[in-house]
Amino acid sequence: MLFLELPNEILWCILHFVPPQDSLVFLKTCKSLYQLKNDELFWRELARHNGIIYLHPNQTWWQLYVSGDLKKTCSHIHSSYRFLNDQIIKQDKCDLFWNTLLLISADSSGYDTNHHQEQKKSNCCQEQKINGICLYPNCQFKGCGDATFAPESNPGHLREHYHATGHTLVLKLSSLHFCELFCYACNKPVGFWGFPSMDKPIGERYLVRRIVQSLMNTLPTDQELKKKVIERRRAIERRLVWSQQSHEDSYIIERKWFMRWNEFLFEKSDQIPDHLTNKTLFKHHDVKELRSDIELGTDFELVGGVVRSYIERVYDIDGPVISAYELQWKPEYRKISESILFRRHIMQRGPQGVPTDL
């Protein structure tokens, strides 16, 4: 009996005992098995068998499997992703997002405090701040709890809402975890850990970017509300930048984009910058090899790990992002490393603190 004559369920059971990175070697043991490599329907059904029905546009189902990401990918995010395809639900979710954001910032940002007091009674609680919203379509719940991704130590009403409804995905709105997604069923962050060194599956990151960017870029039609929303966004992003300035965990980004971003943050421009393009920092023949002639303050700037993750999910990054830590061990980047160390020394000796304009 040929392998391909076996039911897919049997083949999937066999593959369960083969590490994904060794699956190509396994398929090469038999000519009929090797034919499966190009059978996208087989790998798509295998993914669906594991609860995964999405992948990155530049990825095939076979590539998803062989990368080992299939079992690491959140299988619940697609239920929330559906709202992007329905304009009415999308607008309702965007209204919930921005109204909640203004509501939780009312006391500390100088916005409409009277409106905050009127709405306070409709919150899930009065003592704790709202830390997130439910992303399930047609659900308008906003609640408190686990702002730092610690649901066991600070469960709050967000977790209670999950147990009551089964709505797994929430969007965090706390200052240093702004627009991060958390899945209660998987009990972990989705798309981004908050630390760039801890990569998530590319399909999961792609879907999170689609959700976050859709919410961030769909501004209110009311001009007064739109003005408040943009100012709130500026305040959050300024706080992120300031909180990360003295961190040793620094990443290199293109300076022209960084300056456009700063012009937006400090109200010199109303233009929200497009995606970050880092390709100009790399050699043309090898997009992974950083140029050794670039200069800090002229060609590139530094951002902390949390800011880098924020830029990636909110603005998107075209091209790789190099950690400054990696460069100190490479002689060809000695000049760059020394300038980074000098900048860090200056920042550590400068005035400390984080703006309180939130």
From TrEMBL:
Record domain F-box: where: 1-46
UBP-type domain mapped to chain residues: 72-212
DUSP domain segment(s): 228-327
Pfam families documented for this protein: DUSP, F-box-like, zf-UBP
PROSITE patterns named in the record: DUSP, FBOX, ZF_UBP
Transmembrane segments: none
SMART domains (alphabetical): FBOX (SM00256)
Keywords, comma-separated and alphabetical: Metal-binding, Zinc, Zinc-finger
Record GO terms (molecular function): cysteine-type deubiquitinase activity; zinc ion binding
Listed name of the protein: F-box domain-containing protein
Organismal lineage: Eukaryota, Fungi, Fungi incertae sedis, Mucoromycota, Mucoromycotina
